[in-house]
Specification:
two-stranded antiparallel sheet, 2 domains, single chain, nine-stranded mixed sheet
């Protein structure tokens, strides 16, 4: 009899436990569809956002290409084979300097460019890249990060000169910026300079810069990548020793198979662009080797 009573109590306890479990189970089942719909909404939002970003990215790229074509049509850079002033010629006759100074200047019609954009200060050209652009400058380093040459809103931006740099007179370190676009517009094709095929071509180590006042030819002395910093962007030096230390540091960073001599009396041109989305930068330094008044 006692065993029967004990068995009944045990069974009653089990039934109570089962009753408690059933409501919880039903509640959980009711929540599952809501979680499912929330997840669907979340991932759908991400997909829509991503598709929109790709669409606008492509639209910006297409607009930049349209501007490039118009500039190429209206402004045809031409080679100028007239003599120019040699800058800091080395005594060593085997120096590559003598090879590069034989190259002709590039020049453009700035009247046409200035009619399109009054912020135009120069025109830059580099071999075996897509860098063939008017250079602009304004009162800050923000505007042309998000505006194209025609002043339209554009995330591709444009090639622009640091607002602190000067071309007339020529500064110690003139800095040009541009986005590293994946389709290689603006400064996106500077990634070419990191490849062995580009570096093994001797003719690639020059940069042409033309301004309304003069034509300039630069010889590249350093190519490297680095995380974001301010040191390579230094433009004012308090002493010759400070500039010499800076030049030595920039040369030591070089990853290309070149060994170009640079002195404290040299004027430097620096190109800077983003390498990736983690803050990496591609940097190219060049020294002025020849100039010609226009």
């Amino acid at each position: 009899m006692a065993q029967a009573m004990t068995r009944r109590k045990y069974q009653q306890k089990q039934k109570k436990k089962l009753k408690k479990r059933i409501p919880n189970t039903r509640k959980k089942r009711r929540l599952r569809p809501w979680i499912f719909y929330l997840l669907i909404t979340f991932f759908a939002s991400i997909l829509i956002f991503s598709v929109a970003r790709i669409f606008f990215w492509q639209q910006d790229n297409e607009h930049i290409k349209e501007i490039e074509k118009q500039i190429e049509k209206d402004v045809k850079p031409k080679k100028n084979k007239e003599e120019g002033e040699l800058i800091n010629p080395p005594e060593e006759k085997e120096s590559d300097y003598w090879y590069y100074v034989k190259m002709p200047f590039y020049e453009v019609d700035f009247n046409s460019l200035l009619a399109k954009n009054q912020d135009t200060v120069a025109f830059i050209h580099m071999n075996n890249t897509n860098v063939n652009y008017p250079v602009v400058q304004t009162t800050d380093n923000d505007y042309y990060l998000t505006h194209a040459y025609d002043h339209s809103n554009n995330e591709a931006g444009w090639v622009f000169m640091d607002y602190r740099s000067t071309l007339n007179p020529l500064g110690n370190n003139v800095i040009l910026y541009g986005h590293g676009r994946l389709n290689k517009t603006v400064f996106g094709s500077l990634k070419n300079a990191l490849t062995p095929s580009w570096q093994n071509n001797k003719d690639n180590y020059v940069i042409w810069l033309s301004t309304p006042q003069e034509n300039l030819l630069y010889q590249i002395f350093s190519i490297y990548t680095i995380q974001t910093e301010g040191y390579y962007l230094k433009q004012d030096f308090r002493s010759d020793q400070e500039k010499e230390t800076w030049i030595t540091t920039m040369k030591q960073r070089n990853i290309a198979p070149i060994d170009t001599s640079v002195s404290i009396s040299d004027n430097v041109l620096t190109l800077s662009t983003c390498e990736n989305n983690t803050g990496g930068r591609i940097v190219i330094h060049a020294k002025l080797i020849k100039r010609q008044a226009r």
